[in-house]
Every structure is written in structure tokens, then in C-alpha cells.
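Weekly modeling sync, notes
Attendees: S.R. (lead), two postdocs, one rotation student

Agenda item 3: backlog of single-chain predictions. S.R. asked that every request posted to the team notebook include the full sequence so nobody has to chase files. The rotation student volunteered to paste the first one in as an example of the format we agreed on. Action items at the bottom.

Example entry:
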Amino acid sequence: MNSDKGLILTRSASDRNGSCTLSYFGRSENGPFKILITNHRPLFFVSRDSEIPDLRGMERRSVQLQSFRDQDVDVLYFNSLNNFYDGRRILKEKQIQMFESDVRPADRYLMERFINGAVRIEGSGIVKEGISIWSNPKIKPSNYIPVLKWLSIDIETEPIKQTGGQGLLYSIAAHGTFCKESTKKVFVLDQKVNKEKHDFVPDIDNAIIEYYSSEKKLLLTFLDFIKTYDPDLIIGWHVIGFDLKFLSDKCRTMNIPFSIGRSSKNISINEGKQGLFSADIEGRLVIDGPQTLRSAFFKFDNYKLETVAQEILGRGKDITPETDKLMEIIRRFKDDKPALAKYNLEDCILVTEIYQKTGVIEQLKTRSHITGLPMDG
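Predicted structure, as returned to the notebook:
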């Protein structure tokens, strides 16, 4: 029997072959991991005196538990996630009171084992494509909190409203940090090149520009880069509602799978209340700058990157506020692509340094360790 310990980053439940499987991705002492719990039976509770209709794939059992009103309860087990959701819907329609039916199965499994993110894994794991995969291991609470691998991303696009253009993807910048290592790359569209070429970003050490003749080549190379770099966290400024959404839409129009997680599953982007966005990427968390700083009670005149960077770091973006930013981006794309790459990458670096200076990621780790909530929850 082998063992490892790490931090769970993402959790999910899905039906496979007619039964529920729980999936947990994270980073351990030995790198990325995936835990699979197969043939899991989702559950919730009902009052013992409730008359329950026959529900597909359900088993009812008596348990020595009570509600907060001292009612004896029974547990309803379901053979699959679909059965669980159908049963919950039917009982709600019949106005039958349920207890803990809103607890997600992947969360409940951890709660029942008193696991707040940090986990000790015991069993037989195999390594596949750089990920340790554990099938139905024993899992226990742990105090281990790893160093996480960050990737700050930012895109520059054709300003459609100002130019009447087709919304070209001009460039994608990436700043990766892990322990003392740093990676700086910019993928730039240059429709005049016949094949890929390289250059260096002006005045930024060890930063490489790669030029591609089409948006499709640029996108495919960037997606490969994410898979190869394999970050735990994707960070940025409005990175979900703008950058990831734009890239997702681009991939859809080009029939390219936008699967940037540690599985083949496509990214899912959701817009919640008050315009707040969330992204579901298996194995990776997306931590968005403005939303995260607001929730951590940082106060600024506004949450523009320029404003926050000036206040936290004492410096701002490469294109200054008094410049017509949109026209300057167009000019740089047409006439000075290295300068465009510098502007794009500087935004990534500013975000990384803001996160480092404020310590928001460490705060999210601590909160997750105490409460059991996901870091992006």
C-alpha cells in the first residue's frame, strides 16, 4: 500500500456506466493527483413518518439520527446521480420535507470524513500522463498544504466597436510561477509570417514572444502550453468573464475543444448574480483578481488593474491612462508587435505581483483548510 498527502483543488460528481463517480483533483507532495470514488450512492434524509413514493434506484434505511427539531429521520440512498436529482425533484413537487438534499455529493463525502481540503491518501496509485490516479483509496484528514503552481494569463483583442473589425485575437500572454521558477511567454498573431518564429520581449528578462500566422495556430499552441505547464491556479484580471470567455467563444467558432483542465472535459463558464463569473475546470482553480480582492475586504477607489497596481505596487500598466489605450493597442499590433507583447505580458506580471503582495492565495488556502470550502467557493 502506498500513501501520499496533498490539497484537493476541485471536486465533482458524475454518472458513469449507470452509477455515481466522485472525482477529486489536487496537488500532493509528489505532484498532481486524481482520486476516483466509484459506485458511490448519493443520499439525503427524510422524516421517518414521511410517505415516500417508489423512486427509481432508491433504497430507504432507518438511521439513528434526528433533525434539529428532534424528528427521527431515514436516509434515502440513490444508485446514481440522475436518480438522486430525479428523487429530489419529485419529493419537492410533492412538498415532502427533505434534509440536506442541497449538499453536493462530492462535498458530503469529504465532510463525512472530516476532510477540509488537505488529505492523506492510502491505496494503490498509478501515474498516467504526469498525474497520480488513485481508485477508491482510503482518505483521511491531513495538515499538508502544498506550494501551488500559478499561471497568470491575459489576452489582447481587436476592439470591435471602435474598428468594426471581426474581433481578432491579437495575443495571449502567460506568466507562470512555481517556487523560485518563473516562465514568461507571449503568443502573438502575425499574419505575415509563413511559419513560427521567436523573439524576446523588450526589457523583460527571459520573456519569449512566439509569432503565429493564424488565430487557430496561436490557440492550439497556447492550449498545448497550458497542458504542458500544468498549473494548479489560473489567475488574472476579469480573467473569467473576459479572457476565458473570449477564448472559449473563439474555440467554439473554430471547432477546437477548449479543454484546459487535467481532464478532457471542456471548461464551463457561468455568470451568477451581480455579474460575477465562475469557471469549472477539472483539476485547476481560476482565481479572478477583482472578485477575490473584494471578498478579502480590500478597498480601492475602483478595481481597475491600473488603480490597484498603483496602490499596491507603486507602478501601473505599460500603456498609461492618459493614452488612448484602444488606439495604441491597434497601432502596436499593426506596427510594433514586440511593444504589444510587452504591454500584454506586463499585465500578467502585475496580477502575479498583486497576488503575491496581498497574500490573497494564502488567505484562500487558510480559509479552505478551516472551513472545507473550495478555494474559489
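Discussion: group reviewed the output briefly. The chain is about 30% helix and 35% strand.
Action items: rotation student to repeat for the remaining queue; S.R. to check formatting next week.
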